[in-house]
Amino acid sequence: MKKAYKLSLIMLLAFSLVLAACGNKSNSTDNAGSGDATGGAVKSDVKIGMVTDVGGVNDKSFNQSAWEALEKVKTESGAEVKYLQSKSDQDYIPNLNQFVKGDYSLTWGIGFSLADGIATVAKQNPDAKLAIIDSVVDAPNVKSVTFSENEGSFLVGVVAGKMTKSNKIGFVGGVDSPLIKKFEVGFKAGIKAVNPDAELLVNYTGAFDKPDLGKAAAATMYNDGADIIFHAAGGTGTGVFNEAASRSNSGQTAWVIGVDKDQSLEFGDKVTLTSMVKRVDVAVEKVSKEVVDGTFAGGTEVLGLKEDGVGLADTSSKNVPADVIKLADEYKAKIVSGELTVPSE
């Protein structure tokens, strides 16, 4: 009897241990801002932080591209990644410092608006590693990545110039700045290269996070006869797409040329003519992996058509005829070879 009782007790304890072990297996998922590695990657000691501009991480544009790149780095290397969203310019330095003081291996500033903040924090923390998109910060511990936006914008200008039916084309910018001017100037040059008679309507909304301003700007342009609008306005550009969709549903031709990402994936082929893709994701992934493998160094990189840093979206053929894509490719070859120089200001 005692032997049977002891055997039963042993079996009960063993079963309890099995249940306890199963119960400790966590099925929790990471929140949007941070998390451990997934996808089977070995956990790394590397921590990478990203500070957005006021457009926010869900701007459907370059902030989102940057974050998606960091999530990929996390999956492949096991690095810890996290972002902080800035609600105003006053948030930049505190947000950057939160990562630097938290001993993060690399701190990203996404957007030219963070240049002063990156410069200040880099100077105060010479041992910290920082990186910035869309601006150059001259400091030994900062990697600066910029793009030849004018070159990619030239190509979508060629598309717009060939495809407009009204000979009126719009450009909606965010903040009026040297960076966004590169989009406008390159776009206009591409239009004029193939359609000298086309008119370019320009509106700077003054913001990257105000879809209502983008919608109003687009409405004015479509009312004035534009049938294609290229936006370089971050989250404000969502309003441009919304206005185009509303008009398209009413039977009006209202095209939008997206920016930074292939925005047809977000807003559909019905209103997205093409997109000027700016490979922020490639830049963020590349530099972040340099930190992971220990090869990070300060300095500046410029990514243009030659480096595949900018260009037409791969899905362009859905709405752009083959002969127009061929023409754009011919201009691309001239730019890459140096035969043609695209203005930037």
From TrEMBL:
It is a lipid-anchor. The keyword Chaperone does not apply. It is found in: Cell membrane. Residues 1-20 form the signal peptide. Residues 49-344 form the ABC transporter substrate-binding protein PnrA-like domain. One of its GO terms (cellular component) is plasma membrane. It comes from the Bacteria. The keyword Cell membrane applies. Its main location: membrane. Keywords: Cell membrane, Lipoprotein, Membrane, Signal. It holds the Pfam family Bmp. Coiled coil: none annotated. InterPro entries: BMP_lipoprotein, Peripla_BP_I, PnrA-like. Belongs to the BMP lipoprotein family. This is Putative lipoprotein YufN. It comes from Paenibacillus nuruki. The lineage of its organism: Bacteria, Bacillati, Bacillota, Bacilli, Bacillales.
